[in-house]
Amino acid sequence: MSTAARRDFGAGPLSRGAALVYSLLVVELLLLLCAAPGLVALFALERHASNLPLVAGCAVPFGPALSAALYALHHQRLDLTDLRPGRLFWRGYRANLAGSLLVWVPMLLWLAVIAVNLVNLPAAGVPRWWPVPLVLVGAGLSVVGVNALVITSLFTFRLRDVLRLAGYFVLRTPVVALGTALLLGAATLLTLVASEAAPAALASVLALALVRGGAPMIAVIREEFVR
């Protein structure tokens, strides 16, 4: 097959759709594999407020796995003649392991603290309006944390610069922040209504949505902050 024929073969909408489905399936399997230690422990936990710190601990392996998925789906070409999502996933996992943990673990710790406070509010005797600022802080922290995870997955910056950019782009690209908030809200609702297995089974789709929805932020960073 000639070079032109190979190029035409992988360029059609059906071929691109098949390439996307294949990439999502491979990335999903690898993501679940990397997050398996935490997921197995998470499924074994009883749904009780006292287990919230343990839930945060179980979620630690998910951060580097999600970071690798973001990297793979961002760099993958939807061409049936050049599919390599597995190779890209492992490249992203190795490159972003330390950086993703530096972003992911502190975010989990703060969210665990907020969650524990929320479930114990009745015993604390605080005003009824007190949960509102806690929820808002948790939502803002989650959006900034996910922004930071996307940035550290696709670019090489110092941690403090990653955090500054993540907060800056909440205001610079509010559409991205709103999309991230809606995705996180949907994932949380799905967990509460179904189980932790539901968002885990759709993790690669979530990663793709973060990459596609974060395109304006990614483009500005590449244009203005990468030399």
Using only C-alpha atoms, the radius of gyration works out to: 19 Å
**Count of individual domains:** 1
Count of helical stretches: 12
- Counting helices, strands and paired strands, the structural category is mainly alpha
Shape descriptor? globular
Report the uncertain regions.
Answer: none
What summary fits the major beta sheet? none
Question: Gap between N and C termini, in Å?
Answer: 39 Å
The proportion of residues forming helix, as a percent range, comes to over 70%
Summarize the helices and strands and which ones pair or pack.
Layout: H1 3-9, H2 13-44, H3 52-58, H4 62-75, H5 85-119, H6 121-124, H7 131-154, H8 159-172, H9 174-193, H10 197-201, H11 203-213, H12 215-224
Helix pairs in contact: 2-3, 2-4, 2-11, 3-5, 4-5, 4-7, 4-11, 5-7, 7-8, 7-9, 8-9, 9-11
Describe what you observe in this structure:
The chain has one domain (3-224). The chain contains twelve helices and no strands. The protein has helices at 3-9, 13-44, 52-58, 62-75, 85-119, 121-124, 131-154, 159-172, 174-193, 197-201, 203-213, 215-224. The N and C termini lie far apart (39 Å). The mean pLDDT is 89.
What does this entry show, briefly?
This protein has 227 residues and is mainly alpha-helical. The protein is 81% helix and 0% strand.
